[in-house]
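ok so for the tutorial part 2 we go from a plain amino acid sequence to predicted structure tokens. step 1 is just haveing the sequence, like this:
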Amino acid sequence: MRKLTYFVACSIDGFIGDPDGDASSMYAFLDEEFIGYLTSTYPETIATPGRVQMGIEDAENLHFDTVIQGRGSYQVGLDAGLTSPYAHLRELVASRTLGASPDPNVEVIDGDLVARVRELKAEDGKLGIWLCGGSRIAGELLDEIDELVIKTYPQVYGSGMPMFGGTGFSVSDFALESVRAFSNGVLVRVYARKR
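step 2 — the prediction. this is what the tokens look like for a chain of 195 residues:
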């Protein structure tokens, strides 16, 4: 069975963006050391135009062959004229408002998201599924998430978009597998779900 990994950036206090979902303040920490880590360890998480700009457009996908994102995350690409921001992956967008897909590489999920994710997880394949965001779909898929890769940036937001939105109170246990600290203050923590 393939695993679903929530690979996400957040502030120290657990927000993935400001109240409107903007996380651009975190871009300040994309220095040479951290970008080197991302491009060598998680190259598939770099959007296709960034891969071209960095000269890694042919980099092998190491962890994921599929990406799922919410309408808000996908809209960032649409606003920049990108209908397939991760063309090197199979792309799915969870949205009840987008309508028809604007790109043949993008599948719009407008129905039962949990059921569709379970179908994806049951497929054969050695690579996993990347949950890119956002908050609401992470909350909806919490029970399906097998792994967390949390890039924590040294900022406190105070309020904003939480990592898991709309879940109410419930406890889900994960085991820490690794921590990587960078000189710019960023931490990357990897957790596996305790089943």
